[in-house]
Design a protein that fits this description.
By secondary structure, this protein is an alpha/beta fold. It has helices at 55-70, 85-97, 111-120, 146-160, 175-191, 214-226, 240-249, 282-294, 320-323, 326-341; strands spanning 19-20, 26-31, 40-44, 73-77, 103-105, 126-129, 139-144, 165-172, 196-203, 231-235, 253-258, 274-280, 302-306, 313-315. Strand 10, helix 7 (240-249) and strand 11 form a beta-alpha-beta unit.
Length: 349
């Protein structure tokens, strides 16, 4: 039986909350002051890479904070277009061989690579975000109840719409993103069972650019807005930037994902149209795994799940228009309480 770790993942704000590594992508190496004993942290990004203002940037924030707090160095490595599982494996193996521990793959696409690399380096702790298929003593599967924060996003959308018409845009048509869609729809329908919900996936596979193409996100958003939707929620990584851009240009609401996108510098000119963001505390997951290895000397392994209960998911409240809307906040608080006490069972598909 696998050990299931349920931790309070630090660092999430909710509403209630150049070197080259082999031939496998570019990387940067940084060194924090303090000179800790560990070589440091290895981080390999998902499709879209650093700068997506969302999923990968959340991982980078945890990586940076851990380096600073624990006095270790780190190496973070970018993906390449059209890379294979073998490329990902070589990237992780290179990091482990160089002495980095833990080594973390950001995204479910790293599952085959983590499985192979973990077997080759049993004394190194590997982490993978958004996947639980790798079962090994030296692997931590960092998972989230995305459907819970998406449910709250759906409640917010249903309270914010003026047309009773909202939209969901998923980056890639995979089970992980189905969780975002299912929660969002259920939350919106809990407020208004007759609400109209547009739904669209940008691509069938990550290789087609569903998580890394702002133009695809913008085109999909334009279509949903033209159809009448006035609140859009995107779970699409870098592609979500295009959704936010479109929403701002049409003066309708966007709901961000993973990071607090209202606060992202690259999205500052659109922030007045970012109602809230459905947070997934990837930052905290990366930080806590690093802490368990470097400081606590008791590496996490097995399933590490973020939920509303432990602060692993939630809604951001940076936008005053969201935070100060009493009716919306009351509805969200009620929904959050129901999810926590089990009276609301959130769907995952």
């Amino acid at each position: 039986m696998r050990r299931v770790s349920r931790i309070t993942i630090a660092g999430v704000a909710t509403a209630a909350l150049a070197v080259t590594v082999s031939a496998c992508g570019s990387s940067s190496t940084s060194s924090a002051s303090g000179g800790g004993k560990s070589k440091g942290i290895g981080l390999a990004y998902d499709v879209g890479g650093k700068g997506d203002q969302s999923f990968n940037d959340a991982a980078y924030a945890g990586f940076e904070k851990a380096q600073k707090d624990f006095g270790v160095s780190g190496r973070d490595v970018e993906p390449q277009d059209g890379e294979s599982d073998a490329d990902k494996t070589q990237r992780l193996v290179t990091l482990a061989k160089a002495g980095y521990n833990p080594v973390i793959g950001v995204g479910f696409a790293y599952a085959p690579a983590v499985k192979e690399a973990a077997a080759k380096f049993p004394k190194v702790t590997f982490g993978i975000i958004d996947d639980d298929k790798v079962q090994a003593k030296n692997v931590a599967d960092m998972l989230f109840h995305e459907e819970q924060s998406s449910y709250l996003a759906g409640v917010a959308a249903a309270k914010a719409t003026k047309k009773n018409h909202i939209g969901f845009i998923g980056g890639v048509d995979v089970p992980l993103i189905h969780k975002f869609e299912a929660g969002f729809k259920q939350g919106a329908q809990s407020v208004n069972p007759k609400i109209k919900i547009e739904s669209q996936y940008l691509t069938q596979t990550p290789q087609e650019g569903g998580f890394s193409s702002p133009d695809k996100g913008e085109n999909a958003a334009n279509g949903q807005i033209d159809a009448g939707a006035d609140v859009l929620y995107a779970a699409a990584g870098l592609s979500g930037q295009g959704v936010i851009k479109s929403a701002a240009e049409h003066k309708v609401w966007a709901i961000g994902v993973d990071s607090d996108q209202y606060k992202q510098a690259a999205l500052a000119k659109y922030k007045n149209y970012i109602l809230t963001s459905a947070l997934k505390n990837v930052e905290g997951a990366v930080y806590e795994l690093s802490k368990s290895v470097i400081k606590d000397k008791k590496p996490l392994s097995g399933d590490v799940r973020g939920s509303l209960d432990n602060g692993g998911v939630g809604l951001s409240d940076s936008n005053p228009a969201f935070k100060n809307n009493a009716g919306m906040q009351a509805a969200i608080k009620k929904a959050e309480a129901g999810i926590k006490d089990g009276s609301i069972k959130v769907k995952t598909s």
